[in-house]
Write a structure and sequence with these properties.
It is built from seven helices and no strands. With about 160 residues, it is mainly alpha-helical. The two termini are about 25 Å apart. The N terminus is likely disordered.
Length: about 160
């Protein structure tokens, strides 16, 4: 029994290191992809605009909910305020949930970009994803997008395997 617990703990530590390594790779490719997209903004402008729009919307909501004393103040000013820092630390979990809201907003923005007026009012999520992947693969940043997407797929498959 002791061996089982020990082996189980070692496996969890190993998986944890793998997760960190995967997240690190994903972060590196995401950063390279973002820089490439900004360099080729003429092609990637719709994606860049969608990302910026979702960030702005979430930031505004989070600022009002998490750090009410910061509303209406300059960002650099309120970030230095100890009261605001305390508010932000207190609501860190809420901010994590905000990332989910950002993802949803981003999907809405991207969905609007890839749908044409002749499309049905509502298409399946996988169709939208397929069109976004096709668009991203067609640009100059394919060399960063492809490995980044592979990592994302690997993470999704690992989550699915762990939950089953």
């Amino acid at each position: 029994m002791g061996n089982f617990v020990s082996n189980s703990q070692n496996n969890n530590q190993h998986e944890s290191r793998d997760d960190v390594s995967l997240r690190s790779k994903e972060s590196q490719y995401r950063g390279k992809l973002w820089e490439c997209m900004k360099t080729h903004s003429d092609y990637y402008q719709p994606i860049i605009a969608a990302v910026e729009s979702s960030k702005k919307a979430v930031r505004k909501e989070a600022q009002a909910a998490v750090a009410p004393s910061s509303v209406g103040r300059d960002v650099m000013e309120w970030r230095k305020d100890p009261k605001v820092r305390e508010e932000v630390d207190k609501y860190y979990d809420f901010m994590e949930r905000g990332s989910k809201a950002a993802e949803e907003q981003l999907f809405k923005e991207l969905e609007a970009f890839v749908l044409k007026s002749s499309d049905q009012p509502k298409v399946r999520e996988d169709e939208v994803t397929e069109r976004i992947v096709e668009f991203m693969s067609g640009g100059c940043c394919k060399e960063f997008f492809t490995p980044w997407l592979d990592i994302i797929i690997e993470e999704i498959e690992a989550e699915a395997a762990a939950s089953s």
